[in-house]
From TrEMBL, chain A:
InterPro entries found in the cross-reference section: RNA_pol_sigma-70-like, RNA_pol_sigma-70_dom, RNA_pol_sigma70_r2, RNA_pol_sigma70_r4_t2, RNA_pol_sigma_r2, RNA_pol_sigma_r3/r4-like, WH-like_DNA-bd_sf
Highest taxon of source: Bacteria
UniProt domain RNA polymerase sigma factor 70 region 4 type: residue ranges: 128-177
Key words, A-Z: DNA-binding, Sigma factor, Transcription, Transcription regulation
Any one GO biological process: DNA-templated transcription initiation
CDD domains in the cross-refs: Sigma70_r4
Similarity comment text for this entry: Belongs to the sigma-70 factor family. ECF subfamily.
DNA-binding listed as a keyword: yes
Keyword match DNA-binding: yes
Gene Ontology MF terms in the entry: DNA binding; sigma factor activity
Protein name, as recorded: RNA polymerase sigma factor
Domain annotation RNA polymerase sigma-70 region: ranges: 30-95
From TrEMBL, chain B:
Transmembrane segments: 107-124
Pfam families: HEAT, zf-HC2
Keywords: Membrane, Repeat, Transmembrane, Transmembrane helix
Protein name: HEAT repeat domain-containing protein
Matching InterPro entries: Anti_sigma_zinc_sf, ARM-like, ARM-type_fold, HEAT, Znf_put
The keyword DNA damage is annotated on this UniProt entry: no
Species per Swiss-Prot/TrEMBL record: Spirosoma terrae
Putative zinc-finger domain sequence ranges: 4-37
Top-level taxon of origin: Bacteria
Length: 189, 275
């Protein structure tokens, strides 16, 4: 029974080493540590609940499938984000850039007469921001999601994107400028 | 212009308070003297902050069940090491260590043979037990050693109440439960002959009460319980969960003549609090 408590004390990397060694059950501990962050990362891209849930399982399935490629010196979280990025990117290649209707968007709440003006305004801002994010290229969207919503440092983002810290900052600056232009088309860069 | 190009990528680090005091000062001074950068800084800051206002997507706990199912099917489909293979792997490890210490290979080889014979014996005795009868083993050690779903089912169906109790308690230690174990726990809650086992199952399931299916089964279980102690525990749980759907079942229970008087007053109280 101490098995689970002990496993919870292990670092990500040593858990992944054990998973690689054949103890697939220990992936559960890693899943419990990261599924929320990974789900939210995916959801920011696809903004569809069931599809995000499917892709989340695909990510962890790929961890198992490609566990032999995991190296001791890899940072597990970085590796996991790289896999997630590939899963989301494959999904985009398959389905293209889709403009989603958010389950919580204003259109779906239109009948709710209880919405007060302030809430309507807030929801309008959220809707327009989500729509603007949808219009960005995959790479621009990705760098914004990683840096604004995932609480990752630029050094780690650079590793995930196979890039350098300086290049990530420049990409982010460009991506936010693109977003700004979509939100306020009359402004200049 | 070159200065501007150097300053701009630092905006985000500034928003995240990642710059040193000197870098911050240099950026602020530049913004005071360069209207172009200041204007860009303001708009970018507005966009950056509005992104921060986007609500965090909720994560449905069903993803945990989906993960367990995925893992189970992966393990069933993938190459699994048998108990014997694991033992041999352990022994060969031991054998290697002996080799490094320059022991006589012949001694190590004999030892390996003896160990393999023992493990084969254990392996086959285990295979013959696969029908689910653990009568020959010490039950508590089986629970402790085998983190195995099949074992859990076997133990939940054991004729001995203490074994079933340990099995339910063990389910609490699993990092996540798949739907088949949840179903087994619900069956235990509704059908076990022992009050303590049913109470333990209730405790395990109450941890999963955020799951709509489990919640529904907990409510339905109200009318399946005969023992006052389990009834009271369930009633208290309904109050804790503020589960208004339970009122319909409480009313059904009140119609029973055999209902214990303490339970009756507990139900009446709870209906008032929920209503």
């Amino acid at each position: 029974m101490n098995y689970n408590r002990d496993a919870n004390d292990l670092t990500d990397n040593s858990l992944m080493e054990k998973v690689k060694g054949g103890n697939a059950q220990l992936l559960t501990v890693l899943f419990m540590r990261y599924h929320k962050d990974i789900y939210r990362f995916i959801f920011r891209f696809v903004r569809h609940k069931e599809e995000s849930q499917d892709l989340l399982q695909t990510v962890f399935y790929r961890v198992l499938k490609y566990k032999h490629t995991y190296k001791e010196n890899y940072e597990f979280r970085t590796w996991l984000y790289q896999i997630t990025r590939n899963v989301v990117s494959d999904n985009f290649k398959k389905n293209g850039l889709v403009y989603y209707s958010d389950e919580n968007s204003l259109a779906d709440k239109a009948d709710d007469s209880l919405l007060i003006d302030q809430e309507i305004e807030k929801q309008q801002q959220i809707d327009s921001l989500n729509l603007a994010l949808d219009k960005l290229s995959f790479n621009d969207r990705e760098v914004i999601i990683l840096s604004r919503f995932q609480n990752l440092g630029y050094v780690e983002i650079a590793k995930i994107l196979n890039s350098t810290e300086g290049a990530v900052r420049v990409k982010l600056h460009r991506a936010i400028n693109e977003l700004k232009l979509i939100l306020h088309p009359k402004s200049t860069k | 212009m070159k200065k501007c190009d150097k300053i701009k990528p630092l905006f985000f680090s500034y928003f995240n308070h990642e710059l040193s005091r000197d870098e911050e000062l240099s950026l602020e001074t530049h913004l005071q003297t360069c209207p172009d950068c200041k204007s860009e800084f303001d708009t970018i800051q507005a966009v950056w902050e509005s992104l921060g206002n986007l609500p965090e997507p909720p994560v449905d706990p069903i993803v945990i069940t989906q993960f367990t199912n995925m893992l189970n099917s992966y393990q069933e489909a993938g190459p699994r090491k048998t108990y014997l293979q694991q033992l041999i792997a352990n022994f060969s490890n031991f054998f290697n260590q002996l080799g490094q210490r320059h022991y006589y290979p012949r001694f190590a080889y004999s030892l390996l043979l003896i160990l393999i014979s023992f493990s084969l014996g254990y392996y086959f005795s285990r295979v013959s037990d696969a029908g689910g009868n653990y009568a020959h083993h010490d039950k508590s050690s089986v629970i402790a050693d085998k983190a195995d779903k099949k074992d859990l089912f076997t133990l939940l169906n054991s004729p001995y109440a203490p074994v079933r109790l340990r099995a339910v308690a063990y389910s609490n230690d699993l990092p996540s439960l798949d739907s088949t174990i949840v179903y087994a726990l619900i069956t235990t809650l509704n059908n076990d002959t022992n009050d303590n086992v049913r109470l333990a199952a209730l405790e395990s399931l109450s941890r999963l009460s955020h799951n709509p299916y489990v919640r529904q089964e907990l409510i339905k279980s109200l009318t399946n319980q005969e023992s006052p102690i389990v009834q009271v525990a369930l009633i208290d749980l309904m109050l804790e969960l503020q589960e208004k759907r339970s009122i319909k079942y409480f009313k059904k229970m009140l119609k029973r003549n055999s209902l214990n008087s303490i339970v009756k007053s507990r139900i009446t109280e709870t209906i008032q609090k929920l209503g």
